[in-house]
Amino acid sequence: SQTIHQWPATLVQPVGSPLSLECTVEGTSNPNLYWYRQAAGRGLQLLFYSVGIGQISSEVPQNLSASRPQDRQFILSSKKLLLSDSGFYLCAWSVPPSRGFGPGTRLTVL
Amino acid sequence: GEDVEQSLFLSVREGDSSVINCTYTDSSSTYLYWYKQEPGAGLQLLTYIFSNMDMKQDQRLTVLLNKKDKHLSLRIADTQTGDSAIYFCAERLSDSGNTPLVFGKGTRLSVIA
Predict the structure, then answer these.
(1) Which of B35, B49, B86, B98 best probes binding to A when mutated, by most A CB atoms within 10 angstroms?
(2) Do the Cβ atoms of B103 and A101 come within 8 Å?
């Protein structure tokens, strides 16, 4: 069965510092991968999705970037964090018709 | 356009039924989903329904879809304190497998013992 890992679980970073969140999927090949953000009191916003290695689509202009160096690895990055980057970040996978979400990373930028 | 709306809060007594409602705007939605998020945790898929179905039942959960009114509901029978969580409605707009989901803002369900 498919398993998705995300780390770290919690992160507190100062404004202006870099960010790297990692997500890996096990038990499947060539998944579609997604990064979502859930800001406090708001719904889920799609940030990036990827249909294959090196293929990234960005849904909203922002301070973040994503990379997919391997088939089952998806990385969310920033060179300089902003206060508005605080939120709960969820990685997700899909291999139709199945889908799943990771446990999430709570990021607080101070 | 893509828009999914949900009420933000719902409070019920333990043992009663909960009904969480969702409306969406895009008539081309193919699949509609309900996810549960417990405090500090990720999203758990509860159930989904194809757009050509009216109803789907799974143990204590009943999903009703009114495609004409673009209205989706989730009914939880015999609500328990463990059902306290945020419930997200989501739609997928096409049959393409890699289409991202569009989520509502979530309904926070509180169950009073």
Answers:
(1) B98
(2) no
Q: Which two tokens stand for residue B19?
A: 């009904």
Contact at CB, A90 and B100, closer than 8 angstroms: no
The mean pLDDT value of chain A amounts to 87
User: Closest residue of A to B89, CA-based?
Assistant: A43
Question: Nearest-CA residue of chain B relative to A39?
Answer: B105
b or e along A22-43 (b: 16 or more beta carbons within 10 Å of the residue's beta carbon)? ebbbeebeebbbbbbbbeeeeb
Q: For residue B54, is it left (φ>0), alpha (ψ between -120 and 50) or beta?
A: alpha
Half-sphere exposure of B66 (CA within 13 A, CB side): 9
Q: How many CA atoms lie within 13 A of A6 on its CB side?
A: 26
A91 half-sphere exposure, CB direction, 13 A CA radius: 29
Task: Please state the rounded mean pLDDT for residues A23-45.
Answer: 85
For A76-106, what is each residue's pLDDT tens digit?
A: 999 899 998 999 999 999 887 777 888 889 8
| Angstroms from A17 CA to nearest CA on chain B | 24
Question: Are A106 and A8 within 8 A, CB to CB?
Answer: no
